[in-house]
Design brief:
Distance between the termini: 44 Å
Mean pLDDT: 84
Order of helices and strands: HEEEEEEEEEEEEEEE
CATH architecture: Beta Barrel
Number of strands: 15
Largest sheet: 8 strands, antiparallel, barrel
Oligomer: single chain
CATH topology: Porin
Structural class: mainly beta
Strand content: over 45%
Number of helices: 1
Low-confidence stretches: 2-23
Radius of gyration: 23 Å
C-alpha cells in the first residue's frame, strides 16, 4: 500500500470517527440555554361563563429555557418568556385583552443524548400570572382573571449541530384555569389549557 493510500485511509478514518463521535452528551452538572420563540394556543371553547362562552386567542413570543442536569440525561428546566397577550371574547363579543406570564419548571429525561437526534420528555408545575387586563369591551372595565397553578407536560426533539449546539422543536401542554370576575362578582372559570409549541437554538455550557 502506497504512502498516499495510507494517508487517504487515515484521513477517511478520522473523518468517520468525527461523524460518529458523541455530540452534546448530557452529563450531570451540565447547563444548557435555549433561545427561541413559542406560540401559546389555548384550546377551543375555553369555558362557559355566566355571560356566555369564553374564547381566548393565540399569541407568540420569544422564550428562554434554562436546564441544569442533576444526573446524566436528567435535567431540571425553567422556561421564561416575554409577556403573552391574548384577546378575549365572550359569546362572540370582544371584551378586551389580557397579558400573562407562564413560568414553568419541569423535570425531563433526554434519550440518546449522545446521538444526532435526541428526544426528551418531561413533566412539571406551572404558575400563570395574569395582569394588564384591558377590558374596555362590552362588559366594561372591571373584568379580572385570577392567577393559576397547574401541571405541565413537555416533549421534543434536539437535532445536534455541533459539540455544543442543537436545534430544538418542542411542545408542551399546560393546565391553566382562571376564575373570571366582574366588579368583584365571579362569572365562572376559563379553562385555557394551551398547547405551547415552537423552536429554539440550544447551547451547552
Amino acid at each position: 500500500m502506497s504512502t498516499t493510500s495510507r494517508i487517504l485511509i487515515a484521513g477517511l478514518s478520522a473523518a468517520l470517527a468525527t461523524v460518529a463521535a458523541p455530540a452534546m452528551a448530557q452529563s450531570k452538572g451540565d447547563l444548557t440555554l435555549a433561545i427561541g420563540a413559542h406560540q401559546v394556543a389555548p384550546k377551543s371553547n375555553n369555558g362557559d361563563l355566566v355571560v356566555g362562552r369564553a374564547d381566548v386567542d393565540n399569541d407568540i413570543k420569544p422564550t428562554l429555557m434554562l436546564e441544569y442536569f442533576i444526573a446524566d440525561n436528567l435535567g431540571l428546566e425553567v422556561i421564561a418568556a416575554a409577556p403573552f397577550k391574548h384577546d378575549v371574547s365572550v359569546g362572540g363579543a370582544h371584551i378586551g385583552s389580557v397579558k400573562h406570564l407562564p413560568p414553568t419548571i419541569s423535570l425531563q429525561y433526554h434519550f440518546n443524548s449522545a446521538g444526532k437526534v435526541s428526544p426528551f420528555v418531561g413533566a412539571g408545575v406551572n404558575y400563570t400570572l395574569f395582569f394588564s387586563e384591558d377590558t374596555s369591551g362590552v362588559l366594561g372595565s372591571d373584568v379580572s382573571l385570577k392567577n393559576s397553578w397547574g401541571l405541565a407536560a413537555h416533549a421534543g426533539l434536539d437535532f445536534k449541530v455541533g459539540e455544543k449546539g442543537a436545534i430544538r422543536v418542542d411542545a408542551r401542554w399546560i393546565d391553566i384555569d382562571s376564575d373570571v370576575s366582574l366588579g368583584g362578582t365571579q362569572l365562572g372559570t376559563v379553562n385555557i389549557d394551551p398547547l405551547v409549541y415552537g423552536a429554539a437554538y440550544v447551547l451547552k455550557f
